[in-house]
Amino acid sequence: MGNSKVVKPLARSRFKKIIKSKLQKQKSLKNDSTDLLVYLNYMLFLKTLLNEAQALQSKEDSEELTVVHLNNIRSSVLKRFRG
């Protein structure tokens, strides 16, 4: 079946620290659930990216999903998620 491993999701506190470090100094996260919305949007992006790459894989009759499939579909998925 391949070499698949389960990845544990980030802890909320660690994710908040990562988001805060990427934000500019004048912007900040409020003490609400903004970080959860960012995380859910990120997870939706990954799911969409994988689903479309798998569709491309099956369209090409390839046996496994490769980096080439992901790279071919990445720009169109990024355009949709950027707004």
Report on this structure.
- GO terms for molecular function: protein heterodimerization activity.
- With 83 residues, the protein is an all-alpha fold.
- The chain has a domain at 49-83.
- It has helices at residues 12-22, 34-59, 67-82.
- α2 crosses α3.
Percentage of β-strand residues: under 5%
Distance from N terminus to C terminus (CA atoms, Å) equals 37 Å
Low-confidence stretches are: none
Shape: elongated
Secondary structure class reads mainly alpha
Q: What is the N-to-C succession of helices and strands?
A: HHH
Rg to the nearest angstrom? 16 Å
Oligomeric assembly: single chain
Average pLDDT over all residues: 83
Tell how many strands the DSSP assignment holds. Answer: 0
Please give the largest β-sheet: none
Total number of helical segments? 3
Helical fraction: 55-70%
GO molecular function, one term: protein heterodimerization activity
Organism: Saccharomycopsis crataegensis
Protein name: Transcription factor CBF/NF-Y/archaeal histone domain-containing protein
